[in-house]
What does this fold into?
Amino acid sequence: MSERYAPVGWNVTKIVYDAVALAVTGVYISVFLWVAPSFQHVTLPLDEYTMRMNAFGTCAFLLLSVILSIGPATRLDPRFLPLLYNRRHFGVLTAAVATTHAYAALDWYFSYGPYDRFEMLLRGNTSFSQTQGFPFEIFGIFSLLVLFLLAATSHDFWLRFLTPPLWKALHMTLYAAYLSVVAHISLGALQAAQNPFLAVVVGFCVVGVAALHVAASRRRATEAALMDGWLDAGPAEAIGEDLGVVVTPPNAESIAVFRHAGRLSAVTNLCAHQNGPLAEGRVIDGCITCPWHGYQYRFEDGCAPPPFTETLATFQLRIVDGRVWVDPVPKPPSTVVTPVPVP
Amino acid sequence: MRRRHRDAHRVIWLVLAGLLPAVVLLSLALRPIGPTEAPQIQLAPPK
It folds into this structure.
């Protein structure tokens, strides 16, 4: 048994997304190289190689901060969802920019020693016991290796091969990489910074990213009340046409209840692609559509329309006195459950 | 998002919310005070 490797499924949205990301990155680096020389210390001017290294280094750090902010920002405000759509290409771009930074540093600082420059990078400085002159490069190497690993496994092939929970756990190593990047900057560039600008930017980014994640994680779904083994999903009229609501059973995964054409249907809240929150999506063309990447599932049986093969667990519903009740026991994926008409 | 993944996420970011600013502040506090020595030799880039 084997998995077939499929190329990128390009569409207009992805092309526009990538073009904008590339353009913003190009403009940032160009402006940095143009503007930064005028802010230099008069007695310690930086050479053009160091300038280039700093331009790509700061760009990689800012891109990484933006990438890490997209997830919590979408949970706090759905208007950020378009940024999430092609975030993996953003990650690959960041890995490329960080590699250019590393290559510039390697070429400039480690090319004139008695050993090979990679050997110089790893053995040239062993002052691990002091802050001043600490071999901060080690943190950069770790972060770059993580970025490489995540870029290499960012394709849907690896998502299917590893399964979404394992793939997501692997991609959470990005948090360790971010911490390592911050240590790399703090023990490197910040120690030699000639003005407080870099410290302010780094401080703003780390506090901003952490605050967004903490704020988003505080928005917890409240568990629904159980009565005779059925979950209370609230009044039927509260569910807007072609919209969904989330119902959270005690100690189990959430359930998404959708309304379409005056009928209600329920599926698991976890998209089969990346476990995206389906209840935050909409019904489009009769299909429940994931807000993250647009994966679709039929309203009645949770099956993706042909030729796609993803399936979702479905749930039995009933309406009593205008309130929606959900049986929390999932039906096997793709089981047809007749939608319940709203009275 | 899976419940277990969400819980792990919450714990990780509570830790990072303290750790990230601490790393930056600590490194700034340990910065050398006073003028730094100017480089004596500027090597040419590789040809």
About this structure: Chain A has two domains: 12-217, 226-341.
